Amino acid sequence: MKSIKVDDEFDSAVLNIALDTMKIGKQALVFINTKKSAEKTAEEITKKLKNESEVLNELADKALNSLSRPTKQCERLAYCLKKGIAFHHAGLTSEQKNIIEDNFRNGAIKIICCTPTLAYGVDLPAFRAIIKDLRRYTQHGLSWIPVLDYMQMSGRAGRPNYDKEGQAIVIALTKSEKEKIEEKYLNGLPEEIYSKLAVEPVLRTYVLSLIAVNFTTTKNQLFEFFDKTFYAHQFKDLRRLHSTIEKVIDLLEDWEFIMRSGEDFSSANELEDEKLKATLIGKRVAELYIDPYTAYFIIKCLRNASDKRTDAFSFLQVISHTFEIRPMLKVGVREYDKIQELMLELSNLILEEEPSMYEPEYEDFLNSVKTALMFNNWINEQDEEFLLEEYNIRPGEIRAKLDIADWLLYATEELSRIMHYQSLIKEIIKLRLRLKYGVKEELLTLIRLENIGRVRARILFRNRFRDLKDIRNADISTLSQILGEKIALSIKKQLGQEQKETPQNKRKGQISLRDWEE
DNA sequence: GGACGGTGAAACTTCAGGTTGCCTC
DNA sequence: GAAGTTTCACCGTCC
User: Fold this and answer.
1) pLDDT for A425-443, tens place per residue?
2) In this structure, is the CB of residue A174 within 7 Å of any atom belonging to strand C?
3) Strand C reaches within 7 A of the A141 CB
4) What's the start-to-end Cα distance of chain A, in Å?
5) Backbone angles phi, psi at A504, to 5 degrees
6) How far is the CA of A133 from the C1' of C3 (A)?
């Protein structure tokens, strides 16, 4: 440990150290507990700074316009970037993340206030790593973070080819806290790594996969396989491991993903090692790589769907109630009544069997409804700012959720195929497209054109271009006025109506997209 | 007297992230 | 556990 001195002009240690880092011409990563606090800290540092530059203004502009309409988050980021400060967390768009990472590497950005995102994966060393708090909220209240996490964060300090040294700084509020940090983190050992196989969904997935690809065809072979894993090595209790595997096999059989073959056994020995074989559906589930429980749940819902009125919301709720989509959006105390009311209104569209209010699963069920409502707003063309205000979900998180949702809907589509629910397949395909582009059904034809996303498609539709025929019949200059000439030419070309670029109307009369938005 | 606006203290809420999974053009 | 947000009581001002 080395001692350094910084000005203590302000009463926030983080602020003082960050400003000092800039004063000595270095860069710092500030690790903060929550997204909101990361943003706020970045903003506080920004407020103390004066100088802007053209480069930084450009960056700010790019970050601001990363979406068709900037959200408050974009505005806040742009404000900070103008002074060479940024915040970074999973809620940013990937474009914004790239801007920040690239420009931190080239030195334009001096300080990034981030959540643990930047401790893992991204290789972004800095002269200083400032860690504001080593405690984090978990399900069991506030607790100290793992030593491994601390090592990841402090490991960002010091850039191999630029600095001879790096400084990792942890903020302690009291003397006793300082001692605790020294003992646990600076002088302590990292905790053991635990095998992830212990998580039941993971075990289910692997057991089914091993059987489906005929890698292991009997129970004993499965035992042998898992006996050699890190999981077994760590827990040593093979009997317990085996009984868990047996439980998983029973479940998979109940769900009709595997069968035990050969009914007339000639000896007890054979009974002991009966053959396991994946069913057709089981094979597909293994290929789809979803948790078998999720597949079972989806199949149950599809069965209910076949004699019920369904809607996009029905399927959105199904996939919102799976292990894979987690974390679901949480229903807050203030909105509890509202979500419950909406749920009751939509109740006839819900495919699963609803738990009663008094069951412990009810909370998760309501969370799934909220998550589905968010997706539903997205496919009804609400923008990111709306979703941020209404659901407290940020653009980057929306993107991540949409990806998983698409994968789950693909799985749902495939399962309906295997089960011959023809009418549902069509509905699901349509829903996947709507989810991908975030549009109402009426825009699905227009969206098929390249360079036409949800915003432009809506503009076209509002201008009475409802399908490809309308566009084919349209005059190029009209289209240019609406979308700009480049896009107009491009879509005409896609429809086999290639046009020459006319020099005189190249710039004149061109109305920007923004002018057409209300 | 009452509507309105500003202020600050108290009460109440909320709180990281990630990886691959699929298929297809 | 702490930061951030909302609520609410209180006070002064103006009409």
Assistant:
1) 999 999 999 999 999 999 9
2) no
3) yes
4) 58
5) -70, -30
6) 12
Establish whether the CB of A135 is closer than 7 Å to any nucleic acid atom in strand C: yes
The model carries a pTM of 0.89
- Residue A361: phi, psi to the nearest 5? -75, -10
Beta-bridge partner residues of A31: A114, A131
Band of residue A259 on the pLDDT scale cut at 50, 70, 90: very high
List the one residue out of A182, A174, A127 whose CA is nearest residue A17.
A127
Contact assessment for residue A116 and residue A153, using Cβ atoms and an 8 Å cutoff? yes
Which nucleotide is nearest to A410 if distance is taken from CA to C1'? B22
Other C-beta atoms lying within 10 Å of the C-beta of residue A127 = 20
In whole angstroms, C10 C1' to A125 CA is 52
User: Which of A401 and A8 is assigned the larger pLDDT?
Assistant: A401
- Bridge-partner residues for A30, per DSSP? A113, A130
Q: Which whole number is the average pLDDT over A501-516?
A: 44
A487 vs A474: CA distance, rounded Å: 14
d(CA A497, CA A495): 6
Pairing of strands A275-278, A258-261: antiparallel
